[in-house]
Specification:
Shape: globular
InterPro entries: FAD-bd_FR_type, FNR_nucleotide-bd, Riboflavin_synthase-like_b-brl, SIP_FAD-bd, SIP_fam, SIP_rossman_dom
Protein name: Siderophore-interacting protein
Number of domains: 2
Structural class: alpha/beta
CATH topology of the largest domain: Rossmann fold
Radius of gyration: 18 Å
GO molecular function: oxidoreductase activity
Distance between the termini: 30 Å
CATH superfamily of the largest domain: Nucleotide-binding domain of ferredoxin-NADP reductase (FNR) module
Low-confidence stretches: 1-7
Helix content: 10-25%
Pfam families: FAD_binding_9, SIP
CATH class of the largest domain: Alpha Beta
Order of helices and strands: EEEEHEEEHEEEHEEHEHE
Organism: Microbacterium oleivorans
Number of strands: 14
Number of helices: 5
Mean pLDDT: 93
CATH architecture of the largest domain: 3-Layer(aba) Sandwich
C-alpha cells in the first residue's frame, strides 16, 4: 500500500514558539557509553521550558569563562542539540552528546566541564509536532539522532510496529533504545568507515517488503550524506508523503558550524 492509498492517521504540525534565552549550570553527568554522555542542566531560567516537537533543537552557548552579560554569553561558541527530557517546575533539562574522534566544543564541554559550569541556551524557536497515530514507524540515525529517536519512541503505543536503526562504531558503543515489542531495534556498526556510510547501505537494502502497511512515519537523521539514501527509501521506494516524514543531516563532516534545517 502506498501513502496515497493509506488512511491519514497522523500529521506533522508546525508550531512557532517564543524564543527565550536562558542561563543554566551543569548539575550532573552520566556516561551512557565511553563515547556518549548525558548531562543535566539546572537553573531557575528553565521554569516554564517546553519542547513540543521530538525533533526540536535548542542552541547551547559554551563560554570559556563565566560571562558578565547576556551579550557576552551570546558571543560564545554555540551548537544545536535536541532536548531529551525536562521538568519545567523543578527547572532541569537533560541533553545527550555524542563524542566523535574530532570532538567539537559542545562534546568537549559535556565530557570535561566542571560541575557548576555555566552555559546559555536559546530556543527552541519552533516545533514540528507529530499528532495522531502512525500505522507504522521507521526511525533511523547515528548517535546524534538518538535523543530525537528516544522521544519519538516514547510516543509509540504498545501495539506500534516498525523499525529503529541506530548506527554506532562498534557493539561496545551500542545505545539502548526502549521501544514496544513489535518495534525491531537494530544497531548497525560502521567500524572505521565514514559516519553515515553503514546506515546508508542498510537503508538502501530496505525494500517494499520491509515497509509497514498503512500510513508510515519516517524519521532519518545523521551526517548530511544520509539525506540521499533516506529520500531514496522513503520517497522513491516506499512512496511516503514528504509532508509527513523528516529526513535531514544533523551535522556535516568538516563543517563544525553546520546545523540541521528546522
Amino acid at each position: 500500500m502506498t501513502e496515497s492509498t493509506a488512511t491519514s492517521a497522523f500529521q506533522i504540525v508546525r508550531r512557532p514558539l517564543d524564543l527565550r534565552f536562558r542561563t543554566v549550570r551543569l548539575a550532573a553527568r552520566q556516561w551512557i557509553t565511553p563515547a556518549y554522555v548525558r548531562v543535566r542542566l539546572e537553573g531557575v531560567d528553565l521554569r516554564g521550558f517546553d519542547s513540543p516537537g521530538c525533533d526540536d533543537h535548542i542552541r547551547v552557548f559554551f563560554p570559556e569563562l563565566p560571562p558578565e552579560s547576556i551579550d557576552e554569553m551570546r558571543a560564545a561558541p554555540s551548537r544545536e542539540y535536541t532536548p531529551l527530557a525536562w521538568d519545567p517546575d523543578e527547572a532541569w533539562l537533560d541533553l545527550e552528546f555524542a563524542l566523535h574522534g574530532d570532538a567539537g566544543v559542545g562534546a568537549t564541554w559535556a565530557a570535561t566541564a566542571e560541575i557548576g559550569s555555566v552555559v546559555g541556551i536559546g530556543g527552541p524557536r519552533g516545533s514540528a509536532v507529530l499528532t495522531g497515530r502512525p500505522d507504522g514507524w521507521l526511525l533511523a540515525g547515528d548517535e546524534t539522532a538518538v535523543p530525537a529517536i528516544r522521544r519519538f519512541a516514547h510516543l509509540m503505543d504498545a501495539d506500534a510496529v516498525g523499525r529503529v536503526l541506530i548506527e554506532v562504531p562498534t557493539p561496545e558503543r551500542e545505545i539502548e533504545i526502549t521501544a514496544p515489542p513489535a518495534i525491531v531495534v537494530e544497531h548497525i556498526y560502521r567500524g572505521a568507515a565514514a559516519a553515515g556510510s553503514a546506515l546508508s547501505t542498510r537503508l538502501d537494502a530496505l525494500g517494499e517488503a520491509e515497509r509497514p502497511p498503512g500510513a508510515v512515519f519516517g524519521f532519518i537523521a545523521a551526517e548530511q550524506s544520509i539525506v540521499r539514501a533516506g529520500r531514496r527509501l522513503l520517497f522513491d521506494r516506499w512512496q511516503l508523503d514528504p509532508e509527513r516524514v523528516i529526513v535531514k543531516g544533523y551535522w556535516k563532516r568538516g563543517e563544525p558550524e553546520y546545523h540541521a534545517p528546522h
